[in-house]
Amino acid sequence: MGKYSFSLVAILLLGFLVSAQNLPTDYLDSNFHKKRREAVRKLLPPNTAVVLFANAERNRANDVDYVYHQDPNFYYLTGYKEPNAALVMFSETQADAAGNQFDEIIYVQERDARAEQWTGKRLGVEGVKEKLGFDMVFNGSEFENFPLDFAKFDIVSFVDFQNDYRDKNGKADLFDLIKTFKEKANYPSDYNPIRNDVYSIISEADASKMEEVVKTVERYLNRYEDLKEDEFLNDFVNAPNDDLRKEIKNKVLLIQRENNLDSKVLPMAMAKLRETKTPEEMKLLKKAIEISAVGQIEVMKAMHPNMSETEIQGVHEYVYKKYGAEYEGYPSIVGGGNNGCILHYIENNKTQIGDDLVLMDLGAEYHGYTADVTRTIPANGKFTPEQKAIYDIVYNAQEAGIKASVVGAPFQAPGRAAYEVVAEGLLKLGIIKEEKDTRIYFPHGTSHYLGLDVHDAGTYGPFKANTVITVEPGIYIPEGSDCDKKWWGIAVRIEDDILITEDGPINLSGLAPRTTEAIEAMMKQPSPLDNFKLPKLD
Ligand code: GLY
Ligand code: MN
Ligand code: MN
């Protein structure tokens, strides 16, 4: 009883202290991250070590860096938001020389009063133990001398570190941590993780599926410049028969046994886990999505033809911040008229929208989770007949795509359903003459997973319950297109965030009007910004 009341008092006290500092209280808690680490361990083959690094800090110019953002995998597994850190996990419990048992180690940034005066407080070893619930925590500088024998593991898996991190001359920065890992893991200087992945595909190839494997290897060869000269891959693809392929497979197997490095096991485990969301994640993801839908609503109310693309972007982003969303989940896209035809247009510098359609693809990031919502609206509040004709095709395509987003359906189902509607609609309007030309005006896929990343990790297998995807068909008719001029400069994308459940799809961003009628009605509503006047500046 004494212990119980003590912890209750401690929890109340902690709650009081956090709220007394006016900090958000709805972050994922350390227990969430701990459970996710346990889930990863369960997916690992026996005798495996995995290593994950914090995201790199990236320089903007001179002594100013871009705003730091943690790597989503690292955040998912640790909750640690600082740079210069590494997480090592093991499939089985390990013991050190003193007999201490552990199945994970985290190396973090060292406390440094001077650095913290400039760039903010660090958790340090004690903070990570106390706030993030790790037992084995060290400063990054201790990684080098920690007796960790990677050679004894069958598999040492890591997420490929892109070579875009710099040696900042700090003690144990990301550069040093990766260097230490490479030394400890006997990382060959010519190691190519992608080549290693293709070699694994070949060495695991089932004799009955050789044809499929050849096609996969061909795809890699076409896609990756630095694989094009690889002797084994070319021999494998060009071999006249499967007997020869078997010989090559054996050679590849031998090469692979020269080291235990792998960059498939950990990413695949992460994809599998991150594809479906836990209730704690859903709470934050829903909030990010609803914030973004409200942003679209407020912009619909505030919109007028004199607005600039930048100003429209600012209204969305202000709404995000008003709700406490820290960032945008990706650079905001606001394209008036022809600018909407550039799929990821982020210049957003047209000074007056005029009477064009405005394509607005934006998403708030709330405590790590990002939305991805697109609305396309007429700046003057009324769709022209041509704009409406295109809009309605996209709307119907999206409806078909959402309907196809059901448990068990292949990942491509919404895209196929949407494509059919767009093809039929463009043919009917005479914008294309043959169905095969549909992709000229609808040049992208329809769906991706959504979560910590805007294009989130997942397996791209059949849909599972508790997965959130986007459904985002679009039609883009740039000026100069091979069709009647009256369609030129019309670009429409409608994008919603769909939760897949056993009981069918749920539109989480449906709060923002989607039909032409509902959009026109919303645009007639007054906006608090109608009376927001600023002084004229030269
Ligand atoms: N906003 C990027 C996308 O829709 O995928
Ligand atoms: Mn999207
Ligand atoms: Mn988008």
Main features:
19 strands, single chain, binds glycine, 16% strand, 17 helices, binds manganese (II) ion, Creatine Amidinohydrolase, 3-stranded antiparallel β-sheet, 6-stranded mixed β-sheet, 538 residues, alpha+beta, 3 domains, Creatine Amidinohydrolase, Chain A, domain 1
> Regarding CATH, which class of the largest domain?
Alpha Beta
The kinds of small molecule bound in this structure are:
glycine, manganese (II) ion
Instruction: Provide the structure class.
Output: alpha+beta
User: Kindly, what is the distance between the CA atoms of the first and last residues, rounded to a whole number of angstroms?
Assistant: 71 Å
- CATH superfamily assignment of the largest domain? Creatinase/methionine aminopeptidase superfamily
How would a crystallographer describe the biggest sheet?
6 strands, mixed
CATH fold-level topology of the largest domain: Creatine Amidinohydrolase
Nearest-integer average pLDDT: 94
Number of strands: 19
The strands making up the biggest β-sheet line up spatially as 6-5-4-1-7-8
Q: Please identify, by name, the CATH architecture of the largest domain.
A: Alpha-Beta Complex
Strand content: 15-25%
Give the overall form: globular
Low-confidence stretches: none
Helix content: 25-40%
Question: With helices defined by DSSP (H or I, 4 residues minimum), what is the helix count?
Answer: 17
**What does the radius of gyration come to?**
26 Å
Whole-number total of structural domains: 3
